[in-house]
Specification:
Beta-Lactamase, alpha+beta, 10 helices, 3 domains, Helix Hairpins, five-stranded mixed beta sheet, Heat Shock Protein 90
């Protein structure tokens, strides 16, 4: 193993320049990261062959250290500049190692967004609870609004409990720490999900319809698949006006490679989702904002959890909707192999 072999195999871009400003070394990764061909830059003046401003500026300053460098294609690199010295400590030039940290920066931003959103979603109901408790204390149990304020406290506390439960669920699923998957029949799970949601549908006089096969064997964690279906059906009920309809269907289809697929559709005759919101409905904490949906309770995590569950078993989920006419969620799950 040689040093050149190591440099040629690393995904980090390495460029070294001598004190005269000539490029002494450029490994293969500079092509992918900076669009430079190593054999055309080595031995030539760096400021002549490198026209990317941020990198030129880094070498001109010549200050050893670590910094972030925007790349020409919009990615972000961590730039580590070091002084190259001889075994006797004599400086002979500068070298920069560029490491693509775009994913890390995106994850950091997602973490910050997550913390900010959770902080807001937990702080708001805590403020409500504290305010209602103060009103109860001042007014006393004889106040005509006493019962309603107690119920408001109960509802707000339940919302916080639901939010924490959803956060724990999505964390476990994404971390791969969830229940074991096994071959299972989708049909009784779908029927159980319908049974769970039916009281909510009856309160709104919404018709629940089912068109299910006799059997549909998939590989999944039964409790999680039921959770996903309950989320989808309950969403349909929540966003469908009284007198509407929610339909759950499942059907088989054969793939070209002989692998079968079970396609589940949950359709409603509800409010629909505006086109501008469709790309974001599976994002964590995203909720469609409109006067029609303002008073509908939810954590903004149900569809994110559903997508995570579906994708964790090799499935896919998509949504189709037209504002004012209803929404259809389609889930495709691979049939369990015998």
């Amino acid at each position: 193993m040689t040093m050149l072999g190591v440099l040629g195999s690393t995904a980090d871009a390495v460029i070294a320049m001598n004190q005269g400003g000539l490029v002494l070394l450029a490994n293969g990764a500079v092509r992918q990261m900076l669009g430079l061909a190593p054999d055309t830059v080595e031995g030539r003046p760096l400021l002549e062959v490198v026209d990317y401003g941020p990198l030129r500026e880094l070498f001109v300053k010549g200050t050893p250290g670590i910094s972030e460098l925007p790349l020409p294609d919009g990615r972000i690199a961590q730039a580590s500049m070091v002084q190259v010295v001889t075994p006797f400590g004599e400086p002979v030039g500068l070298a920069v190692v560029l490491r693509d940290i775009t994913l890390l920066k995106n994850l950091e931003q997602m973490k910050n967004d997550f913390v900010n959103t959770v902080s807001h979603d937990l702080k708001s109901p805590i403020t409500v609870i504290a305010g209602l408790a103060d009103l109860l204390r001042m007014a006393g149990p004889t106040n005509p609004g006493f019962e309603k304020q107690c119920q408001d406290i109960r509802d707000t506390a339940q919302h916080m409990a639901d939010l924490v439960t959803d956060l724990l669920d999505i964390g476990k699923i994404e971390a791969g720490l969830d229940a074991a998957r096994e071959p299972m029949d989708l049909v009784p799970v779908a029927e159980e999900a319908l049974r769970i949601v039916r009281p909510n549908a009856q309160r709104k006089t919404i018709e629940l319809r089912a068109d299910l096969p006799a059997e549909a064997i998939v590989t999944a964690a039964p409790i999680r698949l039921k959770q996903a279906l309950v989320n989808l059906i309950d969403n349909g009920v929540k966003y469908t006006p009284s007198g509407g309809k929610v339909t759950v269907s499942a059907a088989f289809s054969a793939g070209g490679d002989g692998a079968g697929t079970v396609t589940i559709r949950v359709s409603d005759t509800g409010l629909g989702i505006p086109a501008r919101d469709l790309p974001h409905v599976f994002d964590k904490f995203y909720r469609v904002k409109s006067t029609a949906t303002r008073d509908i309770a939810g954590t903004g995590l149900g569809l994110a959890i559903t997508r995570t569950i579906v994708e964790s078993v090799g499935g896919r989920i998509r949504v189709e909707s037209v504002g004012g006419t209803g929404t259809t969620f389609t889930v495709e799950l691979p049939v369990a192999r015998a």
